[in-house]
Amino acid sequence: MKLFTCQHCGQLLYFENTSCERCGRVLGFLPEYMNLSAMEADGVLWRALAAPDRRYRACANAAYDACNWQVEADATSIYCISCRHNRMVPDLSVPDNVAKWRKLEFAKNRLIYTILKLGLEHPTKAEDEGRGLAFDFLADPPTPTGDAPRVMTGHDNGLITIALAEADDAERERRRTSMGEPYRTLQGHLRHEVGHYYWDRLVADRGAFDEFRAMFGDERQDYGEALKVHYARNLADRWEDSYVSAYARAHPWEDFAETWAHYLHIVDTLETAAAFRIRVDPHAARAGDLSAEVDFDVYTVPGIEPIIEAWLPLAFAVNSLNRSMGHPDLYPFVLSAPVIEKLGYIHRLVRQGRTS
């Protein structure tokens, strides 16, 4: 994520901010400029200080404080280009649903930001039913006995379903612990599931199976049986030598989606580090070079090597900072040589798939 500042007063801003805490200006994200802008009222519209010749309307989901993206004044949709991907949202007459849905929307907007930065296609289902991307954010159905089927997070032909329960921090932590996962976040879910979507677009649609299978294995193996084998395994079995996570070994599709998610974790975090000009340079390093400076554009660099060379020292540094605060590692994963090779494959695939 890049660094944003208020064009009116220079205050540093978070991507999700809806108003500047210093000058009080309303803020809106302009996706065509990839910038968070201070806004000025112009009749029933808004004028953006970052693009003074353009006029905008707030996304309709701003009414729920769930989106700060702007819609061009002459657009036919009341939703921004991120929220146009929503197919279903929970019942917003339930206050608790709104609070949880808002978290999902913030995470989804970060995902769409990264997709835009990567220059990848992202048609909506309204634009292309067969190849479009859509989201269902669903609450579990209320029942007196509590035995109704729970909403399952997953992907099916471009439709990503996220269970609203995942936005409950306590419930998500319970699931993380029960499933033996070192890491479980809303951002991680979205990045993983959209990996399945881009497998369809960048591998299957192009018939590019040979290189994929050489890297991840044969996806034609029975998916259901592969999951049964995975969940019957001892969770303590070693997976770090070849996979980025334990779940990645379940099936080649899951290996791809997990690797894709980690690629997005890494490039987004490195962009943030670059925006803050963070430099890692421990003079007393004894186990190899731990210095790094993110002085390149992670979204356009030709190869994976600079990304990994910057990421490993940065991950070590932020994990150390987290431990100093008594928290678990921010990035509790080991990138083995086979995993780095898979990340390099994802990086090449993304570069080949750029449309802008």
Radius of gyration (CA) equals 21 Å
The beta-strand count equals 13
Strand content: 5-15%
Query: Which series of helices and strands comes N to C?
Result: EEEEEEEEHEEEHHHHHEEHH
Number of helices: 8
Global shape = globular
Our count of domains comes out at 3
Class per helix and strand makeup:
alpha+beta
Which consecutive residue ranges, at least 5 long each, have pLDDT under 50?
none
Average the pLDDT over all residues and give the rounded result: 93
Order of strands in the sheet with most strands: 3-4-5-6-7
Kindly report how far apart the N and C termini lie: 18 Å
Helix content: 25-40%
For the biggest sheet, the summary is: 5 strands, antiparallel
How would you describe the overall organization of this protein?
The protein has 356 residues and is an alpha+beta fold. It folds into 3 domains: 1-80, no CATH class; 82-202; 208-356, no CATH class. It has helices at residues 95-118, 169-178, 186-204, 209-216, 223-232, 252-275, 305-324, 337-353; strands at residues 4-5, 12-13, 27-30, 35-42, 45-48, 51-58, 70-72, 86-88, 134-138, 154-156, 159-163, 279-280, 292-293. Helix 1 packs across helix 3, helix 3 (186-204) crosses helix 6 and helix 6 packs across helix 8. The longest helix is centred in the N-terminal third of the chain and has 24 residues, at 95-118. It is globular, with a radius of gyration of 21 Å. The relative contact order is 0.08.
